[in-house]
Design goal:
Largest sheet: 7 strands, mixed
Low-confidence stretches: 3-13
Distance between the termini: 50 Å
Number of strands: 27
Number of helices: 28
Structural class: alpha/beta
Mean pLDDT: 89
Amino acid sequence: MTTTPSRRRPAPPPARGLVDALEQSFLHALRSAEGEAAPAALLWTDTDKQWAGLVTRLQTALPHLFVLGSYDAAKRTGPAIWLRCVVDRALENIVLEPSVVPILYLPGVARQSLRAGDECPRDLQPLVELQYRGRVWHHLNGRDWTVDAFLCSEDGLQLDVAQDARTREAALRSLPLLAETALEGLRGHRLDADDFDRLAVSDPTRDMLRWMGAGDALRKAEGEARWKAFCGVCSSDFKFDPEKKSPPDAANELVEGSGKWANVWQRFREAPKLYPDVAKLLRETATPLLLRGSERDAGGNTKAEQQLRADLETIANAPHAIALSKVAALEAEHGKRRDWVWAELGESPLAGALAPLAKLAGAAATTLGGATVDAAVTSYVGEGWRCDRAALEALASVKQPGDLALIQSVVRALYLPWLDASARHFQQLIEGAESAVRAKVSGSQHEKDSCLMFADGLRYDVAGMLAERLEAKGYRARLNHRLAPLPTVTSTAKPFATLTHDKLEGGEDIIDFNPRFKNSPQAATAQRLRDDMASRGIDLLGEDTRPAKPGATGGWLETGKLDELGHQLGARLATQIETELEILVDRVSGLIDAGWTRIRIVTDHGWLLMPGGLPHVAVPAHLTATKWSRAATVKGDAKPSVPVHAWHWNPHVRIASPPGVGTFIVNAEYSHGGVSPQECIVPELIVERGSASVTAKITSASWRGMRCRIVVETNDPTAQVDLRLNWKQPNTSIAASPKGVGPAGEASLAVADDSHEGTAATIVVLDSAGNVLDRKPTTVGETT
């Protein structure tokens, strides 16, 4: 087994504003794996109505946000029974796309009220059932998201906010204005009441954008005195008189962007979803000749996207070399549009897809090399995987059916020739050294007290993505690789991911390719593999992430659905990669939090993925006894016209394998079982806690009044505990002072400010360098 350095991907950019952050948080709450029913609705309970002042602005950016209140369909508000009808798509005047999940904001409603069943207030009872068909947006501790918690939390804005009552009151007052403020200007220092109050001071840039969107409605809402003041500031700062000119006139000035209008454009760029009417005005505004083709040319962006679509359509049937060069040229022409405001508004999806397509074109220009099997493996784990990853990213880059069909056709044109040529080269190398290659196949290693985590169908490039996400969470991840046995199907390959492979041998099973236990007729089924590991002292965790049982020598956990989803979805598997990675990261985090010091992530085989189907290869039925998509057992002395390999477990059993990336089944987009780098080179990923030399685990925390008693299991008596609003930020501590746990592993933290009672916070355990070893959500003063 060899080791490949893991490759860290830059973390995704943080939300640019409060609205972005809320939208991301809503999407995270609604995520579901393929095969699970999509949530019917997202319930947003807000007992104290803290978020009420923001909702009108938020509805501008989120047209699927509905509010509990007096009936007004135009404002998307209504009673519970009306909201239930919205969710059930029973209203003719409310049309939601099938994929859209409505968000229901419930001011003044506590989650406990909805859970009360028959005791739930009668007017809320239509919503009770949605708890089970939908999701509830809430903090990690299970309570409603408060404004204060969201501003400070790592799952929110991660701002450094003073924790006094005056600041909290000012933050609530300024919430609608905070939505229009770029976060970058709020970072880097502690925010107090004065910072939030300054947002309410006259802001001509913001007011100009509001007037451009609202027109005369702003004058009526603000009153004559403020309107006159606004007009005066506009005349002074923008050389523009709203009394004599219209929003379209302002749009013309904004496009030209001279003087103070440059500030207005920058503000619009920072939060364009808050100003949809301004975006509409800009689309309708003629662009001066000198600015055509620039970001301010909304119509030009639309035309460029249309031209890009036409150019991409010509690539589907182009020769490979021409397709590669064409994509590179299109990237050079259109790549800049990904940074434009129109991409933020979802109006440049194909420009967005060009980024992974360009990476795919660059990687696919060079076929996998290597004069030996070892050299080819080194070539693949060094650079070859980048082609596979870029293809997955491109297939997941768009969502609309028309865009998806187009991008799939381009991916096929770029990827299939490279994939097939690389597979044929690898097959030629295998054919000349099959016995030596069989000897290179090795099983998973296992260290005492470590946990083997079997992730089904974890292809090498996807394992690299997983390593990056684990590193981003502070874990140490080391990516290794090994060769899978032939054929690359679960029954043959999975035993090598377990500890049982040394007890197996080949039988005559030419149907399912199952090896058997030595000196026994029993096939090595999944259950028998688990039973054997249990007999060796391995703790079978099932789907649980718990500590090892006393006396266990290690652990075994099976998870992941990549192979299952691939067979179900074909090329659409690419859209589920992110969700599956999140699930795997959660599994690893759970195991490490449960006390496992090392996780070895293993798998059985990789796979091929090709939109439109892999090339079909016909084999006469009379030559094979059984036929899978990428493997078939050869009858007797038959000589099929395709490559033939020996079954790993019994060399006397011959297996036909299609050349290149062909399949014996028509229109198979997802397949495995054959011979290719993607199927044969499988990952092993070793994961450890980042600060492995010191371990700590919070075993209990109990409140008595405003004092919390904490018990910690740790090998470092100098470890300290603290209580923070944001566990990553020391300056959000609300404890009187951090406390050492000492040899007894106990400490007591006091919260001096009674106003924090009921606040969501996190208990953290710190090493001598201030690194967080463990954390536990809590609520200040809660009773248990």
